[in-house]
Amino acid sequence: MFIKLFIQLITLTSLSTLAGFLFSSLSLNFFIGFFVATVCQFLFYYAYANVLEIYVALKNKGLENERLKQLSYQSIQVTCPCHKQIKDVIPVKLNTSNYYKCKDCQKTVSILISSETAIATEPIINTEVDPLILEKIKNANS
After folding, report:
1. Where are the domains of the chain?
2. pLDDT band at residue 72 using 50, 70 and 90 as cut-offs
3. CA-to-CA distance for 142 and 136, rounded, in angstroms?
């Protein structure tokens, strides 16, 4: 990392010095040319870094949208209603109508999706049995 920083510093100094000599060959002050070139390099790098950051953000957003699109697909095992009852796994979208073509009978089959409800249960936290209860059970069995 130190070497990379050193190379960038040498490049900045070299280009600024070259611009300073160019200014002095045009009968202008060397230090003004050096300063202008240094500021221009910093501005160019700042603009480049921002453009690169925006490009990467847009690329990541596109990848995230593609991932969400793929997650919207679900698969379900279905059975063709024909006499052969061929089973198949079909990708299903929950936001559109779903159809597939049976591999055997070549008929177009519509998939109907339904939902069910159930009461959620809580796990039992304490699984130890109270010794008094065990004693009452033993007395009742005796």
Report:
1. 2-70, 74-111
2. low
3. 10
